[in-house]
Amino acid sequence: MKTNKDVSDIGEYSLVELIKQQIKQPGAKNRLVVGPGDDAFVAKIPAGQLLVATKDLLVEDIHFKTSWTTPWQLGYKAMASNISDIAAMGGATPLYAMVGLALPGNEKIDFVSQLSKGMRAICDKYGVTIAGGDTVSSRSGVTISVTLLGSVKKKYIIRRSGARPGDLIYSTGCFGDSGAGLYLLSHGAGKRGKTERCLVNKHLLPEPRIAESKIIAANGLATSMIDSSDGLSASVGFLATESGIGAKIFLDSVPLSTEMQEFKKKYVKADFWNIVTGGGEEYELVFTAAPGKRRSIERLLPRAVCFGEIAKGRDVMYYFNGNRIDVNAKGFEHFR
Question: What CATH architecture applies to the domain 168-325?
Fold first, then answer.
């Protein structure tokens, strides 16, 4: 039930009880030894597997604006970004989430309720148990901190390092949609038509590639892997740096959605490739594979597209129609 009360009207302890009710998941008691409400949660991880953990922060006016993001979408995305990091480590399974929430206090209680429901929705989809967290007051907007724990068999771990000269570079999906969605939101054009709404939805409600990650790991397809949360250029750059090699990106092979091609016609032709290569927040998997794995990838991951290759040296080079070109996009980087 909606209420006009602010968070400050009910205080921390009542707020925590509200959140606990919204994130309550059937079967959670079977997964947790000690759940939300104690000083810490206690849980088991599968026998013979290693612990894998990640953490992301979402800060108001840096990562999102409440003027164009619903609380439900915000909760969903906050959890999705962490699940995507787990996916990038190979055949890992996300298990337990801990949520930190900083609020100025003037938000409506329904804001927190819907935020929690968004988190629970994606957790239910990917089998994640929300096991605990913390709430505090804030003097400068909303901040969401999610710590996600999972497990993985050692043989399935895939790191950023490991790419070798001659390896091919693949993506599990298209680039640029999220960056285009952000552009549209920033310019007040997010609701103009079907194309615009689709691109905005890609930015606000990303889907992590857990299933694809498990296929890649189980079949030994990748030599290195990363998620594309920082954009195409940054993702390939990280793989190259950690592997101590260079890379070639063939822009005419980069996978683009139909909506992205429509976006190019209607909006920013001049900056199009900067949005494609530097937009970020796409959460596709970017991975390298030996040329001998091409047929297996085509069979097991029909949506995967090869758009580059690992090269000797240390530079990441861009080509279009066989000609080398300059691309300035570096991806999003805090403090710059």
Answer: Alpha-Beta Complex (3.90)
CA distances from 160 to 27, 53, 268, 269 (A): 35, 16, 32, 32
**Cα 217 from Cα 52, distance rounded (Å):** 15
Give percent of the chain above pLDDT 90. 68
SS3 at position 168: strand
d(CA 185, CA 167): 37
Q: Show me where the domains of the chain are located.
A: 7-156, 168-325
* Alpha-carbon torsion (157, 160, 166, 169), positive or negative: positive
Which tokens belong to 31? 């997964």
Q: How many helices (H) and strands (E) in the chain?
A: 11, 13
287: left (phi over 0), alpha (psi -120 to 50) or beta: beta
Judged by DSSP in three states, 313 sits in coil
Helix H or strand E encompassing 318: strand 316-320
- 117-121, 134-138, 293-297, 331-335: which range is least confident on average? 331-335
Separation between Cα atoms, residue 119 and residue 112, nearest integer Å: 11
CA 145, CA 317: separation in Å to the nearest integer?
Answer: 35
Question: What tokens were used for 201?
Answer: 């939805």
> Hey, what amino acid is at 268?
V
Q: What would the pLDDT profile of 187-219 be if each residue is shown by its tens digit?
A: 888 788 899 999 999 999 999 999 999 999 999
Count of other CB atoms within 10 angstroms of residue 230: 20
In this predicted structure, the answer to whether residue 335 has a pLDDT above a threshold of 70 is: no
The alpha carbon of 102 is separated from its chain's Cα centroid by a whole number of angstroms, namely 21
Six token digits for residue 323: 């000609």
Do residues 55 and 79 make contact, with C-beta atoms less than 8 angstroms apart? Answer: no
Predicted pLDDT of residue 30: 64
Is CATH 3.30.1330.10 what the domain over 7-156 is classified as, yes or no?
yes
The CA distance from 293 to 240, in Å, is: 20
d(CA 113, CA 184): 28
Q: Does residue 70 come out as left (phi exceeding 0), alpha (psi in the -120 to 50 range) or beta?
A: beta
